[in-house]
Amino acid sequence: MSKRIITLGEVMMRLSTPGHERFIQTHYYEVQFGGAEANVAASLAYWGESVAHICAFPDHEIGRAAVRYLRSSGIDTSYVYFGEGRMGIYFFENGAMHRSSKIIYDRFGSAFSQFDCDQVDWKKVFEGADWFHWTGITPAISEPAARLCLEAIKAAHQLGVTVSGDINYRRNLWQYGKTPVDVMPGLIQYTDVIIAGLTDFANCMNIHDEDFVRACERAKAQFPQIKFISTTHREALSSTHNKLSGVLWNGEALIQGPTFDMPNIVDRVGGGDAFMAGLIHGLLNKPDKEALTFALAASVLKHSISGDANFVTLQEVEQLVTGENVGKLLR
Amino acid sequence: MSKRIITLGEVMMRLSTPGHERFIQTHYYEVQFGGAEANVAASLAYWGESVAHICAFPDHEIGRAAVRYLRSSGIDTSYVYFGEGRMGIYFFENGAMHRSSKIIYDRFGSAFSQFDCDQVDWKKVFEGADWFHWTGITPAISEPAARLCLEAIKAAHQLGVTVSGDINYRRNLWQYGKTPVDVMPGLIQYTDVIIAGLTDFANCMNIHDEDFVRACERAKAQFPQIKFISTTHREALSSTHNKLSGVLWNGEALIQGPTFDMPNIVDRVGGGDAFMAGLIHGLLNKPDKEALTFALAASVLKHSISGDANFVTLQEVEQLVTGENVGKLLR
Amino acid sequence: MSKRIITLGEVMMRLSTPGHERFIQTHYYEVQFGGAEANVAASLAYWGESVAHICAFPDHEIGRAAVRYLRSSGIDTSYVYFGEGRMGIYFFENGAMHRSSKIIYDRFGSAFSQFDCDQVDWKKVFEGADWFHWTGITPAISEPAARLCLEAIKAAHQLGVTVSGDINYRRNLWQYGKTPVDVMPGLIQYTDVIIAGLTDFANCMNIHDEDFVRACERAKAQFPQIKFISTTHREALSSTHNKLSGVLWNGEALIQGPTFDMPNIVDRVGGGDAFMAGLIHGLLNKPDKEALTFALAASVLKHSISGDANFVTLQEVEQLVTGENVGKLLR
Amino acid sequence: MSKRIITLGEVMMRLSTPGHERFIQTHYYEVQFGGAEANVAASLAYWGESVAHICAFPDHEIGRAAVRYLRSSGIDTSYVYFGEGRMGIYFFENGAMHRSSKIIYDRFGSAFSQFDCDQVDWKKVFEGADWFHWTGITPAISEPAARLCLEAIKAAHQLGVTVSGDINYRRNLWQYGKTPVDVMPGLIQYTDVIIAGLTDFANCMNIHDEDFVRACERAKAQFPQIKFISTTHREALSSTHNKLSGVLWNGEALIQGPTFDMPNIVDRVGGGDAFMAGLIHGLLNKPDKEALTFALAASVLKHSISGDANFVTLQEVEQLVTGENVGKLLR
Amino acid sequence: MSKRIITLGEVMMRLSTPGHERFIQTHYYEVQFGGAEANVAASLAYWGESVAHICAFPDHEIGRAAVRYLRSSGIDTSYVYFGEGRMGIYFFENGAMHRSSKIIYDRFGSAFSQFDCDQVDWKKVFEGADWFHWTGITPAISEPAARLCLEAIKAAHQLGVTVSGDINYRRNLWQYGKTPVDVMPGLIQYTDVIIAGLTDFANCMNIHDEDFVRACERAKAQFPQIKFISTTHREALSSTHNKLSGVLWNGEALIQGPTFDMPNIVDRVGGGDAFMAGLIHGLLNKPDKEALTFALAASVLKHSISGDANFVTLQEVEQLVTGENVGKLLR
Amino acid sequence: MSKRIITLGEVMMRLSTPGHERFIQTHYYEVQFGGAEANVAASLAYWGESVAHICAFPDHEIGRAAVRYLRSSGIDTSYVYFGEGRMGIYFFENGAMHRSSKIIYDRFGSAFSQFDCDQVDWKKVFEGADWFHWTGITPAISEPAARLCLEAIKAAHQLGVTVSGDINYRRNLWQYGKTPVDVMPGLIQYTDVIIAGLTDFANCMNIHDEDFVRACERAKAQFPQIKFISTTHREALSSTHNKLSGVLWNGEALIQGPTFDMPNIVDRVGGGDAFMAGLIHGLLNKPDKEALTFALAASVLKHSISGDANFVTLQEVEQLVTGENVGKLLR
Questions:
Q1: Which chain E residues contact residue F236 at CB under 8 A?
Q2: What residues are paired with D50 via a beta bridge?
């Protein structure tokens, strides 16, 4: 039976140069849509879960095109709102060799950032829900977005829904007068599953520790609701060649996942979101260690696909885990 | 000998759907750059004049791509500044048949709108200049932009440069607390050549008159600096089929230009700017009546070209005036 | 409040050559999805109705891509089934000038044609439904498709749902051993709103009459359930220039709609389906004469849009009816 | 039974800007191949005739790509030679509205212009041939090309093959020291069917006469071999809208063909060659008047197709003559 | 002197997503044509051999487009037939990294599968022929195709033509009621050169042996006509990185070819067919060991080219064998 | 403060097949412009230097499009001339794996090759200049080009401008009757910085020596003006994988630069020019060893960018030198 999962976060228009063209030389942009949380939603919906995404768009055709994208992904758009403000945009230039990939964000003043959460009926949103997912991007955007995120987390928690949060500290956001340590602890306290690396611990929980397990234990001590903390490790040999690994701390032990070699990367954007979706799927359906491996394999496959969303089936992820059919020509 | 012409105004990234695709269905956007005043600059530079354009961009690769466009057009970019703020964008959907064309502006918060004109050395800008051109879009954008426009006009006027202004009233702009009648008269008083229709007279000069000549005379009475007032008349039978005409009032008489039938329009954006450029070229080089005809012919040819800029030669405009080589296959 | 509308019919992959390229010279095909009934569904969903579409696809990624299209259009895909058989395809070459447009169908053996309707829970399908729409293409495809169509119509009728049918006689189909006159009367008898021209009367109802009103009266006599009969008239001056008109017989009088001139057609495929959607919307919301005008205007706008689906808003259709904003540049 | 037709002439790479883009703004060129005589060959081969084309290319992959094009068109390439020299190129910009279409030729120094005809075994070439076609472009290119053309015509004539020549005077060619009146009469004297307008008569036969019939009679007097003289008349209302008509003088009378109105032209290049192919087909298979009408209809349809070649079937041309199926959607 | 080679097999339309896009996300398909045997034919024709291909297409423009492709490749299409049935299609999605490439076949009901071989004049087909090539795909398609294959092989054998067969067992075909062991031995008995791996031996010759040489010897014992048996070995490290090797058994010894490392694969489809063409060329022109090396090098180069066909010259293959000019920028 | 740098050399239209397509299979060409010396100019202008480029084009729109390119790159085009002759073209096919990249030059008869340097006012050109750069391609093109190159070098030298020359011996040029040893010594004698490998020493300076340092010393002995000699070493493992290193001899010692591994090359054309630009920038701003490293890093980054020009910032080059941010996703 499919699970009911609720996600919340801004969806931007992604404008990417074709191939490896630089911003300076491009003559057109490919249009896609994406956002950290909606990418998680798209993965889970592709795997058959019943997913609804909460966000807001400007009330014009480009806003509606974003809704079309969410719908096409099988995401329930009952909680997509239209309001004042612009469409958040991010411009993407895909690096190659030693040359880094680049994102230029153009998201300030978006409809999402101005969305007033008082119009949301949280009871209805979370009715029958099994899981709620948020990221640290939302509270970093604006005061209203931070309030939206807090209200959602609180409601989910009160209604017994498992809550996951990808801390995802972004220095360039947080421009509305609050700092992460002002805001994030209030959100983390209701969260069951956390994605956080050492930087996130430091910046968002004020936990400064070089040892990941000790940092986890200190986080747990501070936020007893936490059940799992996970993070990935990416080694970037070049824009085209990375290695990916990850760990999962389950309150008892640190599980080390396998390391995947990733030459010939097609598009790394959304790799972390693919991991998150894989972890949610895994924790809902598998033992901890398998959950982590599944999440890493899902993330690896994302790197072979252009765009934010991870168009891979459960079977494809499972086959990468077992090594079956990898690199074949399937007829 | 080529003339020295200075233009001022925001340059936006133009993102247009391919062919006649709607925003809702497009998978990519074609990238161009344009803006009313820069379109005038591009026309005049293409015709061999020495043109410099004043504007501001964000200091990232997309801002620099806009500069590349201006340079490619042969425009002197010595007075292009980089600063805080985003890149103004406009999304364009080309209509067809009965279906209208659509522009979604996304220009609030641009680097241009925040540009502080104190850093401009106006003496240097207008050294050797013959003409300065502005439009009513700039004072409508923001307080700093209105101030920039006023400073430029005053400096040009004081330095003996002929000033033209396309009044171009846009209801959706003017959101910073001022109204056109607060601001525009202060700009028009130093302007020699005006593009204005009855709506512009009403909204920007508070001259409410159904008779164009009388409106011109009232404007002249109020703003004695004015020497020419011109406007075009477009009859839109459909998105693909328009008729274009125009008039020029030279303080003595109203000159009526020819009417051009325009079936099979390729792209009408920038048609007015092509007229403006034609009028500047005409008034600098021809008797009044020929200037008007030249301006209309230049505008007509713009409708056959995709993008904001009017890539037609002086010879092509002249040949449309005389009817030579129209619709041929030139080998 | 939005209406609940159910549609049924095959959705094919549409592979069209770019621009006006011929099949013989193309190097790529644009991919879209469409089908007469799903086109009606897409229009109605775009206008805010709650629409579910019944069909079947092969259980592979291309079948799933078709589902993505339906979902993106806001269509409820709860009654989309997966089964044996291939994906129906149609290849489209857009004519120009005197040269006709061409469709090569490649739909035999499709999953839809083999779909076994016993798995459908009709009570659930039509729960809360206001309208059911079918066309004469479905019973022409195969024995199972004809049975599916009949079962759906009967169920809708029994559950008090208004039924519309676009007779749409296609000579090249009907290859499974039955003729239209064997099958169609059994479907028409439960149908309230019929789209039929003289050829349809003759081939599908065995009513041979040169007078449309008399044909309608004879049809009504034979099938008392019929409340409305409508048809459009298209005059093809060339592939690029048509005229469109239509009539609506409401049991009492023949209402003649306006004639629209349509030069510079972009894509005429789906024009009839846009009319059908307009008529359903019109009959649900307007007096008969206005319903017909609305339907014709909706169809006219479809001709300005590439693809099967009619991406126009209610407001755009209404404005074409009143002549407002036609052929403008809307900012 | 198909006829054996031999054609001779340079085939160039055609590089055209997409849509209506100007040379100055294009980012890519579409690649096709064409040339007046090969266009005739492609039409006739498409209609089922057995056609061989004589020409020469540089011995590299782009030369071989040209051969691939000829082969794809069903043209026998046994008499395609490889040798010193470059690939002739022509750049094409498709006009729109009042703006003319433009060709920039870049053909000097081509392999064809340097081809030494001594290596051709004319007996073998014309074995079983029914028709030979040349144009006035070949003798205008270079000394060796003029000699090639003369040798071919003489051989064809001696072997009893019907010879047609499209005089096609091009002022920009003829740069190798000879004038048309030096060269052309020597070629025309062996030619049975001539395409020539008044300019061609004047420049190539030194026949200066304003009356077409009288010019034909004077030509016949001078070159008794001539049996037919034909020419088309094109009225260019705009780049997008032409009218086309034509006449055929058969030694006895002047036959006036119908006038076709051609709005919404897609691509006029090759229109004359399509007429020529139609005339050859017509004269081989039909009475004179029908031959002319067929040729005009073939030319009209060419205007709906992008590229040099006329991808229309015999049936499509016949249907345009009778008006059947024009502008329909054929399923 | 070029050899005369006859090939037989279905040619499908290949519709591939651009770049590495998945079926689920593509907006267009690139059109090519290909089929195992026609790919062999295209290679050999590109190398200057005289090649004719036997197949059948539906009698519409898409069928004719396939013929254009064969002709462009320099293949004699005298034995291409038109008949009832559809165009076989295969959809191709190019994998990347760990993600496999995918083919969705849509070939049932094709004109080729229904082709009645009684209309072929085998004497004429094989007149002057040196070699005939077939694959195990043809007898797997349908009863008529199996009969066509048998008739061709028998005729070739009787007329003294060397016969090669690529066994190429495909589990998803063979749906018409026969099994490979019913049919294949009857074809293999007249075949001189066989491509077969252990799976092919087992499924098509009922020879179950883990040792390749012993399997060859058993095959030779059963089918004494066999002179050569060859197979390739591909190690798929990922979709983008394979290693390729191969062996040739000549009745006396097993020759082991070199192993080529293939990182950065562009398109592996047709790699086996490129090997086959290389082997035919090699066996006709070189000692056995060199023939095998040539075939492997040809196959390796195919992986650098998009599409089914191997557009590499003899010289390029020879240079890969010697290592000359590999990876250079040739000016 | 930016430096004033003058460059001289032909700019060609670059027509490249998309992706890794071969010439034989392409349907369109991407249009760019480039030439060895203009590529150097574009790099230096991108880094903020004041650069003027001397060259000549045909006086038509394609020539003017080339000027647009130069202008867009921020290059001063005051010394671009228009004259008789064609546009030089080069066709580029990007290799992959073992398959080499290919350039077909089509540059004979260009406007540049016929340019008469008497019209150049060298005093004005070199006023305020710090550096002049030429390559051995210019004197190889034609007599007038060789004279142009000599005049420029002499003038620069006399006016105290540092002169650099990339010897760049190309066997396929030099077809106008002179040999490199006739011409090159006369140019090298006024040159301060030389790029030359052993082949260049041999062919252009008649210095045959296997030892690079000894060759440098012999060159210095012969041409005392020389201060630096540099060359790069490229190891081509495949078209997609190269290694790059280089050396700089400064009259005293041979400095060995680092070796960069370059898998996943996007486009290697212009790699040498990027090195040259880096070396000029380096020698003007850094110690010798750092100059060499900077030049190599600049060249490496060029391989990640499509087209001739090296669109990388100074900061990006510096970061590659230090290893910072390599292969990251920069937000």
A1: 326-328
A2: D4
pLDDT tens-digit map of B281-304: 999 999 999 999 999 999 999 999
**Domains along chain D?**
4-313 (3.40.1190.20)
Residues comprising chain E, all counted: 331
Q: How many CB pairs under 8 A join D and E?
A: 16
For residue A260, give how far its alpha carbon lies from the nearest alpha carbon of chain F (Å).
17
pLDDT tens column, F256-278: 999 999 999 999 999 999 999 99
Residue in this structure with the two tokens 């049935």, named with its chain if needed: E85
d(CA A90, CA C161): 47
Answer left, alpha or beta for residue C162, where phi above 0 means left and psi between -120 and 50 means alpha.
beta
The set of long-range contacts for F74-77, using a CB threshold of 8 Å and a minimum separation of 24, is F74/B68, F74/B71, F74/F45, F74/F46, F75/F38, F75/F41, F75/F42, F75/F45, F75/F51, F76/F50, F76/F51, F76/F52, F77/F52, F77/F53
Q: Looking at CA atoms only, how far is residue B30 from chain A in angstroms?
A: 4
C-beta atoms of E72 and D74 within 8 A: no
Which of A12, A21, A92, A97 to probe the F interface (max F CBs under 10 A)? A97
Three-state DSSP class for E82? strand
Contact list in D for residue E71 (CB cut-off 8 A) is: 71-74
Q: Are B25 and B72 in contact (CB under 8 A)?
A: no
Q: What is the pLDDT of residues A203-221, one digit of tens each?
A: 999 999 999 999 999 999 9
Q: Quick one: which of B210, B191, B194, B269 has its CA closest to B33?
A: B269
Å between E77 CA and nearest CA of chain A = 29
What are A91's two structure tokens? 């411009």
Q: What predicted TM-score, i.e. pTM, was given to this entire model?
A: 0.97
Q: What angle do CA B69, B71, B73 make, to 5 degrees?
A: 75
Return the H-helix or E-strand segment holding C235. strand C228-236
Q: Cβ contact (<8 Å) for A328 and E268?
A: no
Complex ipTM tops 0.90: yes
Beta strands in chain E (DSSP E): 4-8, 12-16, 28-34, 50-58, 80-83, 89-93, 101-106, 131-135, 162-166, 193-195, 228-236, 242-249, 254-256, 260-262, 329-330
Q: Which residues contact D26 (CB under 8 A, 6 or more apart)?
A: D17, D18, F31, F65
Split at pLDDT 50, 70, 90, the class of E1 is confident
Quote the CA–CA distance of F169 and F135 in Å, as a whole number.
Answer: 9
Q: Give E230→chain A minimum CA distance, Å.
A: 21
Asked if A97 lies within 8 A of F311 by C-beta distance, the reply is no
One pLDDT digit (tens) per residue for chain C, 331 residues: 799 999 999 999 999 999 999 999 999 999 999 999 999 999 999 999 999 999 999 999 999 999 999 999 999 999 999 999 999 999 999 999 999 999 999 999 999 999 999 999 999 999 999 999 999 999 999 999 999 999 999 999 999 999 999 999 999 999 999 999 999 999 999 999 999 999 999 999 999 999 999 999 999 999 999 999 999 999 999 999 999 999 999 999 999 999 999 999 999 999 999 999 999 999 999 999 999 999 999 999 999 999 999 999 999 999 999 999 889 999 9
Beta carbons within 8 Å of E36's beta carbon, 6+ residues apart:
E9, E135, E137, E166, E168, E272, E273, E276
Nearest-Cα residue of chain B relative to residue C316: B99
Q: Which of E125, E86, E169, E177 is nearest to E8 (CA)?
A: E125
Q: Report DSSP state, residue B2.
A: P
List residues of chain D with CB under 8 Å from any CB of chain C. Answer: 19, 260, 262-266, 300-301, 303-307, 309, 311-312, 316, 320, 325-331
**In this structure, how many other beta carbons lie within 10 angstroms of the beta carbon of residue F2?**
12
Taking CA–CA distances from B42, the nearest residue in chain F reads: F68
Please give the distance of CA B147 from its chain centroid, rounded to a whole number: 19
